[in-house]
UniProtKB/TrEMBL annotation:
UniProt source species: Dactylosporangium maewongense
Domain Erythromycin biosynthesis protein CIII-like C-terminal residues, every copy: 273-358
Name of the protein: Glycosyltransferase
Any Pfam family: EryCIII-like_N
Keyword Ribosomal protein: no
Length: 463
């Protein structure tokens, strides 16, 4: 088969697909990975064959001044009221409507060339299967336009399909209230019409959904799901010599995410408080933090070693615990290496609001180290001080006794230090980490998933 992967142009979206892409390639299939032209070096570094989309000298769509902005809070909540969503369901809806629709819109724009380039490539190369990132909606357009089978590759809780289910249930009420029956369809329709495609459920959600998350990790949906073991992959890098020596005291990893290290100066107020909490504890902390995350910090404790970047696949086998932001890649790697987890989660709503502040945490057109100046007035959007999926992650590790929630907004410095020692030292957390490892191990590996898709695509062709 010919298999085309279409990741959103972010390292956090690329790394999770690499083990599966290599599994297809190792099984004798042809593999290509298509994304924004500026992202080609990162794809090539994985050993996979990249396909450039758009102008290599242009900023990717999210870094443009005219990128889609978040919906106003009042509009988001009006939808929730009409659909009668409870408090928990509102969080799913907010994540979809106020956050995820923004990057989804990036690569189905009719005024940018990336989607047209992908369709042209797919029509010429003729893939049998397109595996598209849940946020890269040029993928299903190209698949449908070229006649390929296609599936979404999930990177977290499926709040997109959950929201589509709710929109379908309440379509009549939404229209009666003067609201769109399906905002996702609205985003896709202009580009779909160019290729004569109907924006139906299959175009929005794929023919199948490939989900590397644990079962019941996210809201329930009606989608046809293929489960896969989330194999940790964090790139190739020479192992530092000091990692080959066993730690002299319990080692704790501290990592707070690939996204916030590019967008949020000072990492809200988490980093200073956590580092103050570990100072003087009888542990060694390896903190993979960059200068932006350390901004405003006066000093580093003696028992903390700061490394700008270190693959978790190298660090975690030496650790007794990990403190992290709740991201899917970090959660999955910790699970695969049986490491107890402290998940940073403030438990607050993910609703984004506009406020008068000096340093917004959501700014159109800016990424530190790439494009720090914008040509438009700064939008003063404030996001909650946590990863969107952090509550899902923290609930999972707590429920399975594999770790604890670290709420830096409610816990004192002393309470945080005590919690870290408990998770790193008490056997119940290691037992829980071992248990969730066993469920991970029992999930189909990428090589097995290749066999599943060989059968699905063959069956579809034979219908």
């Amino acid at each position: 088969m010919r298999v085309l992967f279409t990741p959103y142009p972010s390292v956090a979206h690329l790394l999770p697909i690499v083990p599966l892409a290599w599994a297809f390639q190792s099984a004798g299939h042809e593999v290509r990975v298509a994304s924004h032209a500026g992202f080609m070096p990162q794809i090539a570094a994985t050993g996979l064959t990249p396909v450039p989309l758009g102008d290599p000298d242009s900023h990717e769509a999210r870094l443009r001044d005219d990128a889609r902005r978040p919906a106003e809070a009042a509009e988001v909540l009006r939808y929730a009221d009409v659909m009668g969503l409870d408090a928990v369901e509102r969080e799913h809806w907010i994540t979809f409507y106020q956050y995820l629709l923004n990057p989804i819109a990036d690569y189905v724009r009719t005024d940018l060339p990336e989607c047209a380039d992908l369709v042209a490539f797919a029509r010429a190369w003729k893939p049998d299967l397109v595996l598209w990132d849940e946020l890269f909606y040029a993928g299903p357009v190209a698949a449908a336009a070229s006649g390929a089978a296609h599936a979404r590759f999930m990177l977290g809780p499926d709040e997109i399909a959950w929201s589509v289910d709710r929109l379908e249930e309440h379509a009549a009420e939404l229209v009666a209230a003067g609201l769109s029956a399906n905002p996702l369809a609205d985003v896709m329709r202009p580009i779909a019409e160019i290729y004569g495609l109907e924006v139906d459920r299959e175009l929005m959600l794929g023919q199948w959904t490939l989900d590397p998350m644990p079962e019941r990790f996210g809201p329930p949906t009606t989608e046809k799901v293929v489960r896969m073991r989330y194999e940790p992959y964090s790139g190739a890098q020479t192992v530092p010599a000091w990692l080959n020596e066993p730690p002299r005291r319990p080692r704790v990893a501290l990592t707070l995410g690939e996204s916030t290290r590019r967008f949020v100066p000072g990492d809200w107020d988490r980093t200073p408080k956590i580092l103050e909490a570990v100072a003087g504890l009888d542990i060694e902390v390896i903190a993979t933090l960059n200068s932006l995350q350390l901004q405003g910090l006066e000093s580093i404790p003696d028992n903390v070693v700061v490394v700008d970047w270190l693959p978790l696949t190298q660090l975690l086998p030496t650790c007794s615990a990990i403190i992290h932001h709740g991201g899917m890649g970090t959660f999955a790697a910790s699970r695969a290496f049986r490491v107890p987890q402290l998940v940073c989660d403030t438990e607050e709503s993910v609703l984004m609001r506009q406020e008068k502040v000096e340093a917004p945490t959501y700014t159109i057109g800016r990424e530190f180290g790439v494009r720090e100046e914008t040509e438009v007035e700064t939008t003063q959007w404030i996001v909650p001080a946590k990863k969107l999926e952090a509550t899902w992650t923290s609930e999972y590790v707590i429920t399975n006794h594999a770790g604890a929630r670290l709420n830096h907004r409610t816990l004192t410095v002393e309470e945080i230090g005590k919690l870290i020692l408990q998770v790193a030292g008490e056997g119940v957390y290691q037992d829980g980490a071992n248990d969730i490892y066993e469920t991970w191990l029992a999930t189909p590996a990428p090589a097995q998933v290749v066999k599943i898709f060989e059968g699905l695509v063959s069956f579809r062709k034979g219908r």
